[in-house]
Amino acid sequence: MKPAKILKIAFNMVKANKLRSWLTIVGVIIGIASVMAIVTTGEYFQEQVTETLEGFGGDTITIVGSTPFQVTEEGGAGEDSGTSSEENIVKNSQDSGDSLGTAAETGEETQNETPGSPDSESVTEAELTKTDVFTLLSIPAVKYINVNVEDGAELIFGSEETSVWIKGVDPNVWPEMTNKKLEQGRMLKSGDKAVVIISKELSKDTFEREIRLNQMILLNGRSYRVIGILTKEGGLLGGLGGLFGSSIYMPYQDVYSLPYSDEEMPAKEKDVYNSIEIKLNEGADYDTALKEIERKLRLSRRVTKDTQDFYVNSPKETIESTRKLINGLTAFLAFIAGISLLVGSTGIANTMFTSVLEKTKEIGIMKAIGAKNRDIMLIFLFNAAMISLVGGIIGILLGTAAVQAILFIISIQMKVPFEFALSLKGTVIATLVSIIVGLIAGLVPAKNAAELKPVDALRYE
Q1: How far apart are CA 107 and CA 351, in angstroms?
Q2: What 8-state DSSP symbol labels residue 75?
Q3: Rounded to an integer, what is the distance from CA 394 to the centroid of its chain?
Q4: Given pLDDT bands bounded at 50, 70 and 90, which one contains residue 56?
Q5: Reduced to 3 DSSP states, what percent helix, strand and coil does the chain have, rounded to the nearest 5?
Q6: The pTM is what?
C-alpha cells in the first residue's frame, strides 16, 4: 500500500471520531504546553542572569582583601591565647600586606586598646596596595590590571541632592576591560581630572531635571564635569546593574582627594585599593592563571593558604554555577510537567485500542483484498502520530503564548522593554516528544491490529 493511501486512511480515522480525537488531543496539549513553557522560561532567565553577571565583569578576575577568621583553642574568635595583644597587632598588620608603612603608625595609636575592640579590628583589615599590582604584573597570562577605589558621596545637582556610590578606576585600562557601553560622551582617558561618567539611571531618573553631558555636579561640595553617560543595561534583569553597581565612575586618584562632608569620616588612604581587577590574555589557561595569581600573592604577602588575607573571585565559576542551578531546576520542573504527557499518552493508547475494536471488520476486509500486516500497523501508527502531532503543535503555541504573557506582565511591573522569548531547543524537543509519545502509545494497538487474522476479523461483530 502506498504511503499516501496509508496517510489518507489514517486521516479519515481521525475525522470519523472528532470528539474522541479532540479529547485525546487536549491531554497532549496540556503536557506539551507545560513542558514548553517551563523550558522556554528556564532558558530565558538563564540568558538574562548570565547577561547580568557578565555585565559585572564576566571574564574579569577580581581580588579583594579578606582578613582570615581565626578561632582560638578555647573556641572564641580572635588571636591565639598565648600571644600578647601588641604582638598580634604587629602580626596582623604584617599579614595585611601594608606596603606604605602605616602599620607602625596604627600600632602606636592602638597599643592601649584591647584586641576585641572595634578600633583594633580596623587595624587587622587586609589591604591591597601597589605591591600587589607589581606582583600581578609579573604573571605572563595577565593582560590588564585595573584598581578600584570605592566610596560613597553626597551628590548635589541644582537644588536637589542624593547619596551615590562612586567607583574610582584606572582610566588607562578601565575602558579596555569594562563591559559598560556609552550612550553619550566619551570614556575616561589618561590625564583626566575632576571628571565623571554617570549611569543612565542617575542621569534621567534621579532628579526632576536631567543631568546632561558636560554639566557640572557637586560631590561632597567639589565640582566635577560629566564627560560620559552610560547606556542602560539591557534585558529583564538589566536594572540590577544600576541597583548593585556604581552610579558614578571617575579616575581612582580623584577618590583619594574627595572631600568628606562628615569631619569624623577618615580620609581614603592613598594607593590602597578596595579591589583589583585582572583581565587575562586571549588563549591563556584560566584555571592555571588563577592558581598562579594566588601563589604569587601568597609569596608577596607572606601568607599561607590557611592565613590567606585576600580572596580571588572568578565570575566564570559563578556564571557556570548559576547555569547549572537554573538548568537543574528547569529539568526538574519539566520532568514534573512531563507527567501530564504520560496521562496524554495513556489517552492516545486508549483511543487506539478503541479504534482497533471498531475497525476490526474493516481490517479483515483490507487484509482480504491484499493489505499486508505492515500496512495495517502503519495506518494505526500514523493515526496515533497525527493525534499527538496536532496536540504537540497546539501545545507549543499555547505554551509560547503563556510565556510571552508572563514576560509582558513582568516587563510592565519592572518597567523594562518587553523581549520576545522562544526556545528553539524547546520547540524541537516538544515536537519530537509529541510524535514519539504518539508512536509509543499507538504501537501496541497497531501491533494487535496487524496481527488479526482476516477470517477472525471478518467474523467479528
Answers
A1: 86
A2: S
A3: 31
A4: low
A5: 55, 15, 30
A6: 0.60
Residues 247, 198: contact at Cβ < 8 Å?
A: yes
Other CB atoms within 10 Å distance of the CB of residue 272: 20
Indicate whether 112 pLDDT > 50.
no
Grid coordinates 573556641 are at which residue? 75
Query: Which residue's C-alpha cell is 581565626?
Result: 70
Write the pLDDT tens digit of every residue in 348-371.
787 777 777 777 777 778 877 777
CA 342 to chain centre: 32
For residues 65 and 379, is the Cβ–Cβ distance under 8 A? no
Supply 130's cell numbers.
601597589
Handedness of CA 78, 82, 84, 89 (dihedral sign): negative
Q: Residue 98 and residue 67: Cα distance in Å, rounded?
A: 13
Residue 302: count other Cβ atoms within 10 Å of its Cβ. 11
Sorted by sequence, the CB contacts under 8 Å of residue 12 that are 6+ apart come out as none
Is 154 within 8 Å of 261 (Cβ atoms)?
yes
Q: What 8-state DSSP symbol labels residue 436? A: H
Q: What are phi and psi of 194, to 5 degrees?
A: 55, 40
Cell numbers describing residue 369: 483484498
Q: For Cα atoms 220, 192, 279, give the angle at the middle one, nearest 5 degrees.
A: 100
Q: Do 232 and 201 touch, CB atoms closer than 8 A?
A: yes
pLDDT at 223: 94
Instruction: Name the amino acid, one letter, at 211.
Output: I
Contact partners, residue 425, CB within 8 Å, separation at least 6 = 39, 43
Instruction: Output Rg (C-alpha) for the chain, integer angstroms.
Output: 34
pLDDT score at 426: 74
Residue 182 to residue 250: CA distance in whole angstroms:
14
What 3-state class would DSSP assign to 112?
coil
| Measured distance CA(355)–CA(24) in Å, rounded | 13
- Judged by DSSP in three states, 20 sits in helix
Name beta bridge partners: 191.
none
Q: Residue 312 forms beta bridges with which residues? A: 63
Cα–Cα distance measured from residue 317 to residue 283, given in angstroms and rounded to the nearest whole number: 18
356: cell is 482497533
Contact 176, 329 (CB under 8 A): no
d(C-alpha 341, C-alpha 432), whole Å: 13
Looking at residue 264, the DSSP 8-state letter turns out to be T
* pLDDT-derived band at 425, boundaries 50, 70, 90: confident
Q: Helix, strand, or coil here: 283?
A: coil
The domain ranges of the chain are 3-54+320-459, 141-282
The yes-or-no verdict on residue 23 having pLDDT over 70 is yes
Q: Which residues contact 310 (CB under 8 A, 6 or more apart)?
A: 63, 64, 65, 66, 97, 126, 128, 132, 297, 301, 303
